[in-house]
Amino acid sequence: MYLRLSPDEESINDIFVSFFDAECSIEQVRNAEESGFDITAWERFIETGGPGMCLPESCGGGGADLTTAAIVANLLGTYVAPIPFIEHVVAARLLASLDESNANLPLLATGEMIASLALQSLHDSTSAIVPAGAIANYIIGLRGEEIVVAENTTGASPLRNTANLPIARNNFDDAIVIASGEEAHNAYLRAKSEWKALMAVALTGLGRKAVDIGVGYAKERYQFGVLIGSFQGIQHGFATSITNVEGSHFLSSRAIAALEEGADNSAQLAGMAFLFASEAALDAAATSLQYHGGYGFAEEYDIQLYYRRAKGWPLQLGDPGLEYQHIANLCLSKEGVV
Amino acid sequence: MDWSFPPEAEEFRNEVKAFIAEHLTEDVISSTHDGTIHNWEFHQKIAERGWLGGAVPSELGGGGKSAIEMAVMIEELQLAGAPIDGMGVAIVVASVVLELGNDHLKETLVPKLLSGETLVSFGYTEPDSGSDVAAAQTRAVRDGNEWVINGQKMWTTMAHIADYVLLLTRTNPDVPKHKGLTFFIVPLNAEGIEIQPVHTMGTERSNATFYDDVRIGDEWRIGEVDGGWEIMKAALKYERGIAGGQFPSPPLIDAFIEYAQSATSPDGSSIIDNPVVRERIVRALIDVEVCRGFAYNTAFLASEGVMFGVEGSMTKLFASESYKKHSKWFIDMAGADGLLYLGEEDAPVGGLIDEHFRHAPVTTIYGGTSEISRNLIAEGLLGLPRTR
């Protein structure tokens, strides 16, 4: 048991802190607001080997594990970075697990091609809102028991949305079947769990930064002749928020570890971490926004960027109420629930 | 990060589970429902295993159970709903005495504490000083080689079954409040001590204790005269990870699920099939997983020798506040039946849902209120100005 970053993980973290500092400053995030995607940042990310680092070496990737992806996801959240890291990683890993010799994998490994995952089952529908759907050109989805791929869908129109995300309603009419059967289905579910766990990590980073921003403001803003950070009403709100964010950090980290070792409860923990992190991040951002007073909803201030993403990022999965029911079905069907 | 438990901790977990299966009988659990939160027989079984002494740090001559093994034990005992307050007290007091006590206290107290024969009640709080514990007014005045104690303590829980009280007194009223405090371990059979019951909404019995010209020898003093705050800090240090409180909800969740799986709503449907019920069960289970993260983190920090503070406050705050929320949800979802008192005929799961609802508010108050926890988090973690 070692619950800090190991020295190796620290150095990976340092590398990506430098990357995000340089390429995803808050000014750069704002500049990318219209499309939700910063292509220059992605090109620099390609130079770090980031897009393929968690793909098997046999596919041209870096062979790193999900724990490494989590280090990047945490920073992605901290910087609310406009690059499609999580979608790309989980979709590319899914493809590698289904078909290690797929000709697209080397392109996904370098990041020249961007992959994503349709998070809702497609059933009979021909289109669905997909994370990074406006910029991805390799989208994997689940239709019945079939894994399908929609390629070259970059023509899909971006949709204006709550959080300035590069989402689109992608068409799957011409999607091709790349795998089917129980094993393929399980691989898709595993990818979806990876998305939830990495998103939980990203939301934790987002939540922590949102509290930082608010606390920083409360240490500068005077009202009634004193710093507003000296009011217990404000201190206690922050204390509650940061406690939830810390809880979210531990739970999402455990979910990543469970997925990494293939634990029986990994799908359950990933869903739980996702749900908890979603609420903790939004609570943190909303609390911080509130304590900014009127400036909190002014576009000029950064906290609103965090508030909108705290809702927009997780909602790409669909109604969280359905996820609660899904987890209930997983938990309540077995003995010894707690 | 590595969340895996060392093999010896996993083995120990199995040992604790087997112990619980054998010794945590229905009788033991129900004995704690009549107001006494301690069960001597169960406590002594734990002592026989050497687990009380095992928890005392090895540099103090303890049995060298690791912080992670202790966390595992405390987790399993709480998940099963075992009475562990006495265990925490025994370990904390024995550790403090071994570190800072004189030979008399070490010889008189430590063996009997660790064999589970005796208990010490905590005497910190007073009618006029709760969260502001350093404002204690109970006076101890030196008279030759003796001390004369006068005052009153509140929430001296277990004093009616304990042999001693760890008593916080004021020995110097003329200096800043933290600097005029002295601790004693006072035998509760000393002349001039009166113990009166304080009955609580949650059915636990606590006590108010009164001290009227109580005379004790200087050998019962622990720590320096006016150096009581050091003892308080040591007690808090050893309480970390031992005191429990990280997993109050699981016995309630288990009980509610058992009820919901067999009971029907007024419309005839099964309660467990109600999506609102299912969501709330999942929310409660998620909170328990969050508590695991907090608890394992404090165990890890303790294993690294880190003196953590804020991490403990966050654990306590989250666990108790979420438990209080769960107790409200689950009594609601049992409907009017949820109101039926512990032991009432036909009460859902024997009335446990009612009992948890009445017990939960205790947990956000004792051992540091939620408000004090939030103050400490705001100051210690977020660097906001101290306001008290």
Helix content of chain A: 40-55%
Overall shape of chain B = globular
**Could you describe the largest sheet of chain A, including whether it forms a barrel?**
4 strands, mixed
CATH class of the largest domain in chain B: Mainly Alpha
Full CATH superfamily name of the largest domain in chain B: Butyryl-CoA Dehydrogenase, subunit A, domain 3
Intertermini distance of chain B: 37 Å
H/E element order of chain B: HHHHHHHEEEEEEEEHHHHHH
Q: Mean pLDDT of chain A, as a whole number?
A: 96
Radius of gyration of chain B: 22 Å
Q: List the total number of helices of chain A.
A: 11
How is the main sheet of chain B built? 4 strands, mixed
Structural class of chain A: alpha+beta
Tally of individual helices of chain B: 13
Number of strands of chain A: 8
Q: What's the CATH topology label of the largest domain in chain A?
A: Butyryl-Coa Dehydrogenase, subunit A, domain 1
Beta-strand percentage of chain A?
A: 5-15%
Structural class of chain B: alpha+beta
Could you say which overall geometry of chain A the principal axes of the C-alpha atoms support? globular
- Give the H and E element order of chain A: HHHHHHEEEEEEHEEHHHH
- The domain count of chain A comes to 2
Brief overview, please?
With 338 residues, chain A is of the alpha+beta class. Chain A has helices at 7-23, 26-31, 39-48, 66-78, 85-98, 105-110, 182-218, 232-260, 266-291, 303-315, 320-331; strands spanning 115-117, 127-130, 138-143, 146-151, 168-171, 176-180, 222-223, 226-227.
Note down, in words, how this protein is organized:
The complex is a heterodimer of chains A (338) and B (388). Chain A has 338 residues and is an alpha+beta fold. Chain A is built from eleven helices and eight strands. In chain A, the strands form three sheets. A four-stranded mixed beta sheet of chain A has the order 1-3-4-6, covered by helices on one side. In chain A, strands 2-5 form a two-stranded antiparallel sheet. In chain A, strands 7-8 form a two-stranded antiparallel ribbon. The radius of gyration of chain A is 20 Å and the shape is globular. Chain B has 388 residues and is of the alpha+beta class. Chain B folds into three domains: 7-119, Butyryl-Coa Dehydrogenase, subunit A, domain 1, CATH 1.10.540; 121-233, Butyryl-CoA Dehydrogenase, subunit A, domain 2 (Beta Barrel), CATH 2.40.110; 245-380, Butyryl-CoA Dehydrogenase, subunit A, domain 3 (Up-down Bundle), CATH 1.20.140. Chain B has helices at residues 7-23, 26-31, 40-48, 51-55, 67-79, 85-100, 103-114, 228-239, 250-262, 275-303, 310-333, 352-363, 370-380; strands spanning 120-123, 139-143, 146-154, 164-170, 181-187, 193-199, 205-217, 221-222. A four-stranded mixed beta sheet of chain B has the order 1-4-5-8. In chain B, strands 2-3-7-6 form a four-stranded antiparallel beta sheet, with no helix packed on it. In chain B, helix 6 (85-100) crosses helix 8, helix 11 runs antiparallel to helix 12 and helix 11 (310-333) packs antiparallel against helix 13 (370-380). The longest helix of chain B is centred in the C-terminal third of the chain and has 29 residues, at 275-303. Chains A and B meet through helix 7, helix 8, helix 9 and helix 11 of A and helix 9, helix 10, helix 11 and helix 13 of B.
